[in-house]
Amino acid sequence: MIKLIPLVLIILALSLSGCKNESFVADKLSWVGNTPILFADDFSSPTGGWRTYEDRLSFTGYDQGGFRLSIDQPNFLIWSVPGLKFQDTHVYTRAHKLDGPDDNLFGLICRYQDNNNFYAFMISSDGYYGIYRKQAGYLSLMGSTKMGFSEVIQRGDEHNQITAVCRGDQLALIVNDASLLQVRDSTFTYGDVGMIAGNLAEPGTHILFDYFIVSKP
User: Fold this and answer.
1) Predicted model pTM
2) How many degrees, rounded to 5, is the angle at CA 138 between CA 202 and CA 119?
3) Residue 10 pLDDT more than 70?
4) Are 217 and 193 a contacting pair, CB within 8 Å?
5) Which secondary structure element, helix H or strand E, spans residue 206, and what is its range?
6) CATH number of the 26-215 domain
7) Rounded Cα distance, 139 and 90, in Å
8) pLDDT band at 34 (very low <50, low <70, confident <90, very high)
9) Are 52 and 22 in contact (CB under 8 A)?
């Protein structure tokens, strides 16, 4: 993948009707340490509250002990948010490709206002990364004119730990404990959090998220 092409977005913002999954054991994740946990879900039970969705081109739901986002149409993004509101957060997940092209996109959302306004922190299965702002329905890459490349990102169907930092006007993307990108932006100061995935030219991306954690910075 050389650069991000324009995306036609599919709107799948899913809201949460329940509360956090109390069965999640945060201290088993040593890389989180003693940071206070605001919200967490290991997707071991649908009582975590994430609403599922399925049609002939997309799927968002519980699968294989995690939460899967799948899209079978080129140049589309899908996402899911749990209906919460935070100001300053660190958002963590571990995710990997189940199937589809390496030329894909997946990662985390913070300060989600609505379908047309949020920040997205994304990587690809072929080693690229970027921080995006979607404002008034327009998705733009921040801090660069094209996605960066890093050997830190595990390729293919390997797992990657992804962290999105949203603290004041500071936004940062950390992958596998390596800080890849930092930008400053004050467009959005609070909002929901979530997961995001999508295709570029080739359809068929299937991403599985193992867990989802929101902590205080």
Assistant:
1) 0.85
2) 85
3) no
4) no
5) strand 205-215
6) 2.60.120.560
7) 22
8) low
9) no
pLDDT per position as a tens digit, 47-104: 666 777 888 899 999 999 999 999 999 999 999 988 889 999 999 999 999 999 999 9
What mean pLDDT comes out for the span 166-170? 97
Per-chain mean pLDDT for the chain: 85
Count other Cβ atoms within 10 Å, centred on residue 147: 21
Please tell me the distance from the alpha carbon of residue 102 to that of residue 157, in angstroms, as a whole number. Answer: 8
Domain residue limits, the chain:
26-215
Beta carbons of 118 and 191 less than 8 angstroms apart = yes
Neighbours of 59 (CB within 10 A): 18
Q: Which amino acid is at 152?
A: V
Mode of pairing for the β-strands spanning 58-63 and 66-71: antiparallel
Among the listed residues 85, 90, 52, 32, the one whose alpha carbon sits nearest the alpha carbon of residue 215: 90
Return the half-sphere exposure (C-beta side, CA atoms, 13 A cut-off) of residue 201. Answer: 6
Two tokens at 156? Answer: 């293919």
- Counting Cα atoms < 13 Å in the Cβ hemisphere of 98 gives 18
* Percent of the chain residues topping a pLDDT of 90: 72
- Report residue 77 as tokens: 């993004």
Q: Look up residue 85 and give its amino acid.
A: K
